[in-house]
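User: I want to check something. If I give you two sequences, will you return the structure for each one separately, not as a complex?

Assistant: Yes, each is folded on its own. Here is the first sequence with its structure:
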Amino acid sequence: MATSAAFTATVSAITDAFGDPTRRRIYLFMRDLGGTVGLTAAAVAEEVGVHPNVARHHLDKLAAGGYLEVQTAKVAGSGAGRPSKRYVAVADAITEFPVRSDDLVLSLLGRALARLSPLDAEAMAEEVGAEYGRAMAAGLAGGALDAGHRSMRSAMQAVADALTAHGFAAHAENRNNQLRIINDHCPFGDVALEHPVICAVDRGMVRGMLGELYDGEVGIVTTESSRPAGDTFCTTAF
């Protein structure tokens, strides 16, 4: 029988690997596909309807957890050049998924926020995100000793990396003298589409992390685009 610590570690590993609905869908597709010849991130992205960068992020997470294998050998008929990175499901890696209690919590949060006035709901959602962002910044390499000692470029990259680790598939951008964090994926899923005010949590996380990491004034942080508004990406500008 597994020890309590081992059981907890196993549950944590499964939750980390399958804590995102898109990642679960990708894994189930790969598992049902079977076979020995893997698929590229682009092929998986086309199948599940996401951006290739989003698919690659989730595939690498699943591979790191031992649920997928990575193949780099050339496939017959693929032509000359560098072999494509391909993924294939590991047989019998997992048979059940843990209960998604956080899906219920998000749904409850969305309904609770809907009972507030739009301004109050957005302010509350952003402040919750900012508090969480500050906690995330404290947990980054260097902790408190690193806080407030990064350039804006370094702080932006750290924020993008932290968001990516939380399922946002984020990257930093500096274009036309405008700094942005762009998220290719939203881990809040359908809840954010039903309750767009939850997007303020994302904005708050960026503000909270930058406020801790950047050695200077962050300024006003705004949501420039979002999926609930019909945009392709979610963009936080400052």
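And separately, the second sequence with its own structure:
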Amino acid sequence: MDVRSIEDVPASPEHQGTVPVWWLFKPREMRDETLGGHLELVSEFEVMGGGEVHPHSHPTFEFYYVLTGRGLMTIKGESREIRQGDLVKIPPNAVHSLKPVSPNASIRCLAFAVAVKDAPAIDYSSE
């Protein structure tokens, strides 16, 4: 499971040294894997305590960046707790799910996905 944390990445001064940047994926790091694909989506979502993103998959590289809270992320049967500052890389067609670690607290994430080359249209309403 590829989870990268802002806590493990030193800031790099960018924009003429005026802005610290934490490169969770360095520029062009995934170029070859995503060549011919397209940006599928960018969204923010919240899973309330007791809720769950049910297991599903799609033909995209999907990323969850945890804004607040803690959750149990499962990808291809492997589970790991994630928390604020973590970036999770979900490979194409990998079954994945997410639920808060507590029935009383939520987890809020930013999600973005890059579809692989020739990916069909995805119906997110069924997920």
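Because they were folded independently, the notes below concern the second chain alone. The domain at 2-117 is CATH 2.60.120.10 (Jelly Rolls). Residues 31-34 form the longest helix (4 residues).
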